[in-house]
Amino acid sequence: MVTYAGQGDARRTMELLWGLPSATETTPRGPKPALTVGAIVAAATDIADAHGFDAVSMRAVGERLGRTAMALYTYVPSKAELVDLMLDRILGELDIAYDLSHGWRTAARRWALDSWEFYVRHPWVHRIWTARPVLGPGSYAAMEQPAAIFASAGLSGPDVMKVVGMVSAFVLGLTRQVTELREITAAAGQTEEEWWTTHSQLLSELVPDVDDRYPNLALAGQEGAFEFDHEPGEYLEQETRNAFEFGLDRMLDGIEAYLTRVP
Prior knowledge:
By secondary structure, this protein is mainly alpha-helical. It is built from twelve helices and two strands; from the N terminus they run E-H-H-H-H-H-H-E-H-H-H-H-H-H. A two-stranded parallel sheet has the order 1-2.
């Protein structure tokens, strides 16, 4: 099930993201509140990291904090706002200042690799679609750092944002594949080796001329492109990482070539 960011109350979400007081609620008098928005969001992200995004609910977060779900609504109106807060908090991990003394390309490669590790470390982030982005400090910082890298290369502002978006989408797409590879075994109850063995045998039996139909794929296979030297799941994950680094270097090559043509 896909969850979209930006679906909560707009004003309250922005207030919560930026730590601003609510414009529609008065500050209660008396003892300091037992909970904080930060504690609620931290508990929710901990649940997502440990058990997946589907395990996150207001009730589960409340139980983790020793409170009822109703107690949380005083601080966070609903799960819709909580989703934005979770994503913005976790994106704060990408607020990394990169050393530009060795050039923009070295820094850009390091940023992309850090982004890869981030998405693999927090696979639940893939469950939140950000066609409408979260406009919080974590999200801004996560974009500001690569923007600074590519701006140092001499790209214009619009080109900087295009390049950041291009590389980010590449990272997001391939880390999503890794997440799917890790999840499918548990979901299907079948290992990658079992799946590939069964389906490869059936393909050979039912479509014996498959290599003749698709000669370029057959040639790639003859040159070892599809040989598993260990468990297919591990192999495919490593190959995805290899494809990522290969593609990343080619993208950086392209940016360098573009820089030589830009006035």
